[in-house]
User: What shape does this take?
Amino acid sequence: MYCIDTNTDMGKYLENKKIHFFLKRAMDIFLSLLGIIVASPIYILTIIAIKLDSKGPAIFKQVRVGKDGKDFVIYKFRTMVVGADKKRELEINPEDIGNFVFQSKSDNRITKLGAFLRSSSIDELPQLFNVLNGTMSLVGPRPEIPDVVKYYPESYRQRLLVLPGITGLAQVSGRGEIELGKTIEYDLTYIKNFSIFLDIKILFKTVTSVFNKEGAF
Assistant: This one.
């Protein structure tokens, strides 16, 4: 867990948005439950396909940092070989954290099926259960791994004032191919302008981005 100062201008701003957060949570519950039901055939087919494609569990679990700096377990369909985290060390320069890029198009740990699941964003579907259990939202900053968050300067930690999301302003503006510093800028812009209407706009834009496979890998 990381110390987050909520007694900031942004923290106070969010305190005045309680009605929007109430509506956001209601929308999260309804749409995530609807999504799980509608996508249930895709869940079943994807699990079978992953099992046939490579050895290992169909669901990938990883600790991420959520709202208020609290750790939680995120769920995704596995797109990499088993033990992928041990086959690559993150090259993080604390002095240049803003230029860090987590994902790579040339990552040889990704399975053949995994490449398709990523490009189609199907790998993200299990996160609907994270939304349903309240550890994530449909829209918000993408949840980061602890090894990166520990290098966050104070200004970056403000992105932890809200629930992380399956999609967000950064994702519909570049998705996996932009640097951390630019991602943080988008996240803080989202938080500063947060409203239920902005969430709806981002959700609609996400559908377009997914169909066009923009920045997905």
About this structure: The longest strand covers residues 59-65. Residues 80 and 109 are 5 Å apart (CA to CA).
